[in-house]
Design brief:
It contains ten helices and four strands; from the N terminus they run ααβααβαβααβααα. By secondary structure, the protein is mainly alpha-helical. The protein has one domain. A two-stranded antiparallel ribbon has the order 1-2. Helix 3 crosses helix 4 and helix 6 packs antiparallel against helix 7.
Length: 265
C-alpha cells in the first residue's frame, strides 16, 4: 500500500525547486485516506495505514493508561514498579536473544544516558542505581529522530508514514540497512552528536533484531514503537520455536564464509 500518492493533487506546494530535498524525500500525502487526522498524535495507539486500530493485545485496557513510548519500554519493567534497573535492561536484551556483551553494552548506553533525564521528574539528584523511570520516559526523548514519538511520548501516524514515503525508495513496504542509514543521516540535526549516536544505536539494534532478507518490514517496525514485538519474540523463544528474524553471530560467520568462497572461486 503506497499512501504517498493516494490523495489527489494537494491545494498547496509540498516541494520547492530551490530545496531538492523536498522532492527527494516525499511525504505520505495520502495518509488521510486510511487514517483519520494522521497529524494528530495518538496517546496510546501505534497505528499505520495498514493497521489503523493499532496492535491487538491481551493486555487491552491496561495499556490504555500508558503512552506509546511507555508501552515501548514496559518490556523491561517486568515487576511493574515503573523503574527499569540496569539488570532489568540486561535481562530484557538477553530475552530478545542478544549476546552477553551486547546486553551489557545496552545497559551502559540506556541506563547511563537515560536515567538522569527521567529521574528529573522525581528529583534533581542523580539516581545511584541508574534506574530509568517509565512514568517520565518522555524526558529521555532525543533529537535527530524521526519525530514519530512526540515530546510527550505519543505516536504521530503522519511521521511514521513519512518514514516509508521518504526512505523506502523501492516501495517495498520495508527498509534495508542502507535505507535506514540514509534515514538516520537525513534526520540529523546540527550540533547533536548525542542524538546521532542514539539513533544509530536504536535503529541499528532494530535491524539486528528484525531484519529478514536484509530488510525490516513496516509492520515489525510499527510493533517496535508500541513494544508488542518484544513480547512476540520472547514468547517465540520460550516456546522453543526461536525467532526466525534478525542478524546474529551465526549470520556473520556465514557471511564471512560466503565471501571467502567467492574470493577463492
Amino acid at each position: 500500500m503506497n499512501n504517498s500518492t493516494a490523495s489527489s493533487t494537494l491545494p498547496f506546494d509540498h516541494t520547492v525547486p530551490n530545496c531538492p530535498a523536498t522532492s527527494e524525500r516525499q511525504q505520505a500525502t495520502g495518509s488521510d485516506a486510511f487514517l483519520e487526522k494522521p497529524g494528530i498524535a495518538r496517546a496510546n495507539l501505534a497505528v499505520s495505514a495498514e493497521v489503523p486500530d493499532g496492535s491487538p493485545t491481551s493486555k487491552g485496557a491496561a495499556m490504555r493508561d500508558y503512552t506509546v513510548l511507555q508501552q515501548h519500554v514496559l518490556f523491561w519493567d517486568r515487576d511493574g514498579d515503573s523503574e527499569i534497573y540496569p539488570w532489568d535492561t540486561y535481562v530484557g536484551f538477553r530475552d530478545l536473544g542478544f549476546s552477553v556483551l551486547f546486553s551489557l553494552l545496552a545497559v551502559v548506553i540506556i541506563n547511563v544516558n537515560f536515567s538522569y533525564p527521567t529521574r528529573l521528574a522525581v528529583s534533581w539528584w542523580p539516581d545511584l542505581w541508574f534506574r530509568v523511570y517509565v512514568g517520565s520516559i518522555h524526558k529521555a526523548k532525543h533529537g535527530s529522530d524521526s519525530g514519530t514519538y512526540d515530546k510527550e511520548g505519543r505516536f504521530v501516524p503522519q511521521m511514521f508514514e513519512d518514514v516509508f514515503a521518504k526512505w523506502d525508495v523501492h516501495g517495498a513496504g520495508s527498509l534495508s540497512a542502507g535505507e535506514l542509514w540514509h534515514m538516520i543521516k537525513g534526520h540529523r540535526l546540527a550540533a547533536d552528536p548525542f542524538g546521532w549516536g542514539a539513533a544509530i544505536f536504536e535503529f541499528g539494534t532494530t535491524w539486528l533484531l528484525l531484519q529478514k532478507d536484509g530488510r525490516v518490514s513496516k509492520e515489525d517496525l510499527r510493533q517496535t514503537y508500541d513494544g508488542t514485538i518484544f513480547w512476540r519474540i520472547k514468547e517465540a523463544r520460550e516456546r522453543g520455536k526461536g525467532w526466525n528474524k534478525g542478524f546474529g553471530l551465526r549470520d556473520l560467520l556465514q557471511l564471512g564464509q560466503r565471501q571467502l568462497k567467492a574470493r577463492v572461486a
